[in-house]
Design goal:
mainly beta, seven-stranded antiparallel beta sheet
């Protein structure tokens, strides 16, 4: 008897578990001959049919009937908003933007009205997501989510962000649009009296009034300058203004510039005037040499310099003595950032790099060839002067990468190595090309493979420490992200993870990541869904799959034979 009751008890538990599971499952919209429907879990409720259905990332479906829109709850399948709006779309994670008679309002997911449809447009204010930029009768203001006016409707244009705490906006005054600037709280900081206002050099606001005068303000609205002429440039702390007090940094050490290059026209033996250079010591105000040099390039970081007499340069110390006997045909030390201001005495190179690219002419097979290398600002070799090219691998897009790397191609072998800017070798000369930083700590490399006695250029990946992630064996790196690598070879596509492990072999027509973990895979004109964890979410059976997954990523919209269906991805991830 006890055993009978025990079995019955277990059956009841299993039934309750099954019922709970069924109730927890998300409803999948069905496209029937009567129209779109979402099955209701209320057995006593007759299904409703709609002419159109639009899935959303949230737990609701937007439905259309008689050219009007409403919404159905995806969990229960019940209609929560009857079709009565001209348009409907998600506003944020908790509310819906609706329109009636060309006026916009806001409702919540239950259909309760939050803001009446009284406005021409509603947009969330990006500086404060609890506020909304609203347009009413061609005027703009701010309201909160209760519909209360926070900033009066007095502005004639949508605010435009100038900086983190300033907005450009207009009012109509004297029958014309007049621009001014407010802060993020819409407090006026620059008066509404200008025809043009723009951010200037990132730290200033430049404006022009209707009389043609120019004004310069700081970001707090303080007037700095008024001018009848356009303001082209504002000096900052890095600009060289006083040649007797110039300071620059080299590896966090302060160096006071004590040398000044000067020029003079000297009459030669044939009576022609030629420009010659010398150097003045700024402390003693005396020339360090006669005007006999054809060019002098001052390294602002160290007071060292490159001096040319005739056709070659030699590096001199701050004591005006040669550092070594090495000579160079060309010195490239021109890292000026264009500022709009005429450079004071052309020899100044502010913002200069602490490294100098040098060039020397060598003879190879009776031909003059150019080889390049890199010196520091003290004339010490950093990269050997035997390179065909030196390129910076730009890591600036990745804030986590603080190092600078140089791709250097050897003149004799044609192979490329990777150096740190201090001359430390990261990758030896084993690749034919190290071409660019592709992001996520990875750099693209090239190698050569012999196929039927024909050299074939192939691509791979290394990390910024020089470790090989993917050996050069592909025609193309289609995409690289923080979770996957899509490659191509012989017209076929494959998928790898960021550790270089193969997830899908090179046999597909197309692979496209639609989020961090799921890709649409195409083979022979059919599509399926694959998870980079290594599992297929669907078979490759569909004519098309929408790139957007719905209902928190658990529903996919598919098409077969022009018929749309929604399929569940639950328990497949």
């Amino acid at each position: 008897m006890k055993r009978k009751y025990s079995v019955l008890f277990i059956l009841i538990l299993l039934f309750e578990t099954l019922l709970t599971t069924l109730l927890a499952q998300k409803n999948i919209p069905q496209n029937t001959p009567q129209g779109w429907t979402v099955t209701s879990k209320d057995m006593n409720t007759a299904p409703k049919f709609y002419e159109n259905l639009r899935a959303t990332p949230k737990e609701i479906f937007f439905v259309e009937k008689n050219n009007l829109w409403g919404a159905v709850n995806g969990e229960s399948g019940l209609e929560i908003i009857s079709p009565k709006y001209n348009s409907i779309e998600l506003f944020n994670n908790k509310t819906i933007l609706v329109s009636q008679n060309d006026l916009s309002g806001i409702i919540d997911f239950s259909g309760k009205q939050i803001i009446q449809p009284l406005y021409n447009s509603l947009v969330i204010y990006k500086n404060d997501s609890s506020l909304i930029i609203a347009q009413k009768e061609n005027k703009f203001g701010l309201i909160d989510f209760s519909g209360k006016t926070v900033v009066d409707f007095v502005y004639s244009t949508v605010p435009i962000q100038l900086s983190d705490n300033t907005l450009k906006i207009a009012k109509i005054k004297n029958n014309s649009y007049q621009l001014g600037v407010v802060n993020n709280l819409f407090k006026e900081i620059i008066p509404f009296s200008f025809m043009e206002i723009n951010l200037f050099q990132n730290n200033y606001i430049k404006s022009q009034d209707f009389k043609g005068n120019y004004f310069l303000y700081d970001l707090s609205g303080k007037l700095l300058l008024k001018s009848e002429k356009d303001i082209k440039f504002v000096p900052n702390e890095n600009t060289i203004i006083n040649e007797t007090d110039i300071k620059t940094d080299l590896e966090d050490k302060k160096t006071v510039i004590t040398r000044l290059v000067t020029e003079e026209y000297i009459t030669n033996d044939k009576g022609r005037k030629t420009k010659k250079y010398s150097v003045i010591d700024l402390k003693s105000k005396k020339l360090l040499s006669p005007y006999i040099y054809d060019d002098i390039i001052l390294f602002n970081k160290t007071n060292y310099m490159a001096i040319r007499k005739g056709k070659t340069y030699q590096i001199y110390s701050d004591k005006f003595m040669p550092v070594s006997q090495a000579t160079y045909s060309k010195i490239d030390y021109n890292d000026e950032k264009k500022t709009g201001m005429q450079i004071i005495r052309n020899f100044y190179n502010y913002y200069a790099s602490p490294y100098i690219k040098v060039e020397e002419v060598d003879t190879v097979e009776n031909k003059a060839v150019k080889k390049i290398g890199l010196l520091d600002c003290f004339g010490n070799p950093v990269i050997p002067v035997s390179q065909k090219s030196i390129r910076l691998i730009d890591l600036q897009a990745d804030n986590s990468q603080k190092r600078k790397l140089l791709s250097c191609t050897d003149f004799n072998t044609g192979n490329t190595a990777l150096y740190e800017e201090n001359g430390k070798i990261v990758v030896p000369y084993i690749y034919t090309k190290i071409y660019e930083y592709v992001g996520y700590g990875m750099i693209g490399v090239h190698g050569v493979e012999l196929i039927d006695d024909e050299r074939r250029d192939l691509m791979g990946l290394i990390d910024t420490l020089g470790h090989e992630i993917i050996k050069p064996s592909f025609d193309k790196l289609i995409s690289v992200s923080n979770h996957s690598i899509i490659v191509e070879k012989n017209g076929r596509i494959g998928l790898y993870n960021i550790n270089g492990q193969e997830l899908l072999p090179i046999e597909y027509n197309n692979i496209e990541m639609i989020n961090d973990s799921i890709s649409i895979v195409t083979k022979l004109y059919k599509k399926g869904l694959f998870n980079i964890k290594g599992t297929w979410l669907t078979a490759i059976d569909y004519d098309d799959i929408d790139k957007q997954l719905f209902y928190d990523g658990s529903i996919a919209k598919t098409t077969n034979n022009k018929k749309i269906n929604y399929i569940s991805l639950k328990n497949k991830k």
